[in-house]
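Blackboard transcription, Thursday session:
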Amino acid sequence: MAIDHLDGALLELLAREPRIGVLEASRRLGVARGTVQARLDRLQSNGVIRGFGPDVDPAALGYPVTAFATLEIKQGQGSDVRAHLASVPEVLELHTTTGHGDMLCRLVARSNADLQRVIDRVVGFDGIVRASTAIVMENPVPLRIIPLVKQAAGG
Amino acid sequence: MAIDHLDGALLELLAREPRIGVLEASRRLGVARGTVQARLDRLQSNGVIRGFGPDVDPAALGYPVTAFATLEIKQGQGSDVRAHLASVPEVLELHTTTGHGDMLCRLVARSNADLQRVIDRVVGFDGIVRASTAIVMENPVPLRIIPLVKQAAGG
DNA sequence: GCATTTACTGGGCATTCTGTATAGCGACTG
DNA sequence: CAGTCGCTATACAGAATGCCCAGTAAATGC
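(Written on the board underneath:)
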């Protein structure tokens, strides 16, 4: 669970140059290959590294518009709403939250006009009482993990 | 830019089994190795695939609490606030948005108590007028891209 | 209609990496 | 003090990669 400095450096290296192999990583980090291999195995079985899935850019796929929708749900309809939202491809992420809304989801769309269609599809479901949408204009800090990794590694 | 069915299948395959190589992928997809290689190169230079960075789980790093904070910013302080937020490791993501707030950020913390510390650090900055936080309880749909890829590939 | 370009196939080749195993060494622990 | 753990160092077979080429089929331009 705890991450030491070598783990941190390894994660950082992998984040910066993902196509790097175990052997090359060991050279960069100045440790034996077996060490890197053992660390990687441990990080993966720990669940620290979930995987190495391709990082796909929705914008490049033709979905340049991102929005966050806060949803208010009718009592007891939670699981139906979840299933509904999971069936919409443009819903990239869904959280249930405390606070004003009950759920928060990340949406993408082909255009602002298309966003209307997506929202209609998302909220056009019985269990959803109200929705408020915030359209993303800029993304000054793209999803990142390295600063947190550094902190966790004690750096 | 446009994604055909083979691209979609390749992305799906890579998402499901990321450690797969080009050769193995070509076998699974029933095409020549050179084809997979060419498609991958194209997807990467297109920007569709940003990279293959390790997918790190903040919870496994000791940050099991996630929250979204909506921030209201003092006019003209945008770039200062951006820089401030970028300097906080627990800020995983930051967007500027339309709607009620001016910014939306994703936070993580070691505990609910620790979240208070993080929020204090985030909002303890002159340009931020008001903040409202929603703590994530469940994540019924984790960040995903495959359904969108399938739709973009026309299937 | 004809030539050109593009994308895919199938094959080959040298280099490199992976998976796996070995043994030695220093540090920590019961 | 013996046992365990993590790291180093090395070895080896099998596999994958990067790169090359020639042939073919479909789309594009003249």
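Lecturer's comment: The longest strand of chain B covers residues 128-141.
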